Amino acid sequence: xxxxxxxxxxxxxxxxxxxxxxxxxxxxxxxxxxxxxxxxxxxxxxxxxxxxxxxxxxxxxxxxxxxxxxxxxxxxxxxxxxxxxxxxxxxxxxxxxxxxxxxxxxxxxxxxxxxxxxxxxxxxxxxxxxxxxxxxxxxxxxxxxxxxxxxxxxxxxxxxxxxxxxxxxxxxxxxxxxxxxxxxxxxxxxxxxxxxxxxxxxxxxxxxxxxxxxxxxxxxxxxxxxxxxxxxxxxxxxxxxxxxxxxxxxxxxxxxxxxxxxxxxxxxxxxxxxxxxxxxxxxxxxxxxxxxxxxxxxxxxxxxxxxxxxxxxxxxxxxxxxxxxxxxxxxxxxxx
Length: 336
Hints:
By secondary structure, the protein is an alpha/beta fold. It has 13 helices and eight strands. Strand 7 (about 255-260), helix 11 and strand 8 form a beta-alpha-beta unit.
């Protein structure tokens, strides 16, 4: 079985029309909750197109979440992020109902910028315990580039870590938009993923929450490429993890997991050599920003399965871990 743990819901235009109704009045008219007919969702062209793409590349199941750049975490008033993310989660739940053998749900947390993370937890619990979702997205920068949100080593995040451990669900780190500063959306999530790894690796988070399951999207941002610097810095006098345990940097990052949303074989081989097949989960973000045609091999860049299989020296056992085994191990709520 091929399990794609990093994919985003293909939403009908009607979902965004509903969003416009809420946002046009800045939430003054309330959530204006809308229900979605499961047959309508099943038969919608965007759903059918998603399934056709999955079949074309050989994906059996996708774990789908909101598209992060749409999550509106920096919008004001803060209730907009709650209304919208709850609504998208409800839409995803209908996709799961329409195609129960092809999709599983990854929650979109409502994380309004500047608000306590505790306000996000009721929706996380609802998605897991009522909607049957099996994990969550985590936006490390809900201010979308405003430099106001604490890094992941800060105790600001501890209530979320506690809830993730309690529910036994993984979080997939994936930033949302970037409205401030000089970065584009794609540049920004690479920066955020890099900072997430470094802040967690140099913290006491895994000392305090040893069973916490964090997956870093897009192969770990820039960290695999810059690994030499972080190894060297860990060796400097006085530089060690905040919890005082003597670990190499490589040992520290092996508390984390990584997805395969890298569109280049050499990059995937670097990640494989660095963290091992047991810490990589198959992800494609297909369809998405990687869906353009690669002129070298005639496939789309996000057709990542053959790119993994073509890594020199990769074994059938390693492929089995990446394509299926690791997802089953981490997502304990996933059932066939």
